[in-house]
Amino acid sequence: MSGIEIRKVTANIGAHVSGVDIAKPLDEETATALRDALGVHKALVFDDVNLDDEGQQAFARHFGELTTAHPTVPAVDGAPNVLPVDSEGGRAANNWHTDVTFVLNPPQASTLRSLTIPPYGGETLISNSAAAYRDLPEPLRRLADGLWAEHTNDYDYAVPEETVDEEQAARRAQFTSIKYRTVHPVVRVHPLTGERGLFIGGFAQRIVGLSAGESRKVLDLLQAYVTRPENLLRHRWSENQLVLFDNRITQHYAVDNYDGLPRRLHRVTVAGDVPVGIEGKESYSVEGDASHYTAVAA
C-alpha cells in the first residue's frame, strides 16, 4: 500500500486517490484502505486508470459480488455486468437518484468509467445523504426517522406527451418492462459506518400512509437538504477516469448540459444488502422479482 494518497475534494464528500494502479489486482491492505476511504468520503476519483470492461469488473469485485448490468436495461454486448451510460442511447440520468432503489437490495456501490467525454459539460453531481440527514432540524429529523417510502421504476416522469417520440417511448417501455415496487426506510442506517442517511431520490414516489400529494411535499422538503451545494461533489469528467461511490448513502445526477454531444460511460455495480431503518426493520418488496439482477443474501 506504500505511496497511496487520498486527497479530499470538498469538506463533505469526495476524494482523489493516487499512488495505486487499480488496473492490477489489489493486495488486501490496499483494498481495505480503499473500502475505508469510501466509508469516509462516499465518492472516490481515480485518474489515468487504463481499464477495459474486464478490468473495471475486476476492480469492482474488490468491494463485493457484482450485479448484472440492470434489471430491465440491456448490458454491453458480451459483458453482462456492464451497463452502457450513453447519451446516444438517451440515458442522460438528469434527475437525482440512488441506483436501482426500486429493488429489495440495491447496489452497495457503483463504478463509472469514462469512455467518451464531451468537450464541455456532462458533469456528474454526487451528494452525501448522511450530511443531508445531519443538516435536518431536529423536528424534521424526528419526522424522517419514522417514515417509509415506496420506490418504483414505474411512475409519471412528468414529460409532456407531445414531446415524447417513439424512441423515448420504447426506452420507457423497456425500463418498465418488469414493474418493481419496494418499500424502504426514509432514513437508512449504513451497515458498516452506522451513519444515518436520507434514502430517497427519484424512485421514491410515495410515503407509506400519505397521499400522493402529501408524499410529494414531504419528499421535496427532505430532498432539498440532499441537494444543498455544500453536500455535493461536482465531478468534471476527463478521459480514462473512474469514479466509485457508495450507493447506500449518496445520490447522483448526470448534468445534461453538453448540447447532445457524445458522452459514454460504463457502469458496474456491486451487489448490496437489504436496507435497514433506525429500528432495525428491513425493507420489503411489494412487486417485482429481481433475482436475475442481484441475489438477496440469506
Task: Explain what this protein looks like in three dimensions.
With 298 residues, this protein is an alpha+beta fold. Helices cover 21% and strands 25% of the residues. The strands form 4 sheets. A 7-stranded mixed beta sheet has the order 1-2-3-13-5-15-4, covered by helices on one side. A 4-stranded antiparallel beta sheet has the order 11-7-8-16. Helix 1 (28-41) links the parallel strand 2 (15-18) and strand 3 (43-46). The radius of gyration is 18 Å and the shape is globular. The two termini are 34 Å apart. The mean pLDDT is 93.
Distance between the termini: 34 Å
Shape: globular
Oligomer: single chain
Structural class by secondary-structure content: alpha+beta
Helical content band: 10-25%
> What integer is the average pLDDT?
93
Beta-strand share of residues: 15-25%
Number of H/I helices: 6
Q: Would you count the extended β strands for me?
A: 16
Model regions low in confidence, pLDDT < 50 over at least 5 residues: none
Major sheet strand order? 1-2-3-13-5-15-4
The biggest sheet amounts to: 7 strands, mixed
| Helix-strand pattern | EEHEHEEEHHEHEEEEHEEEEE
Radius of gyration: 18 Å
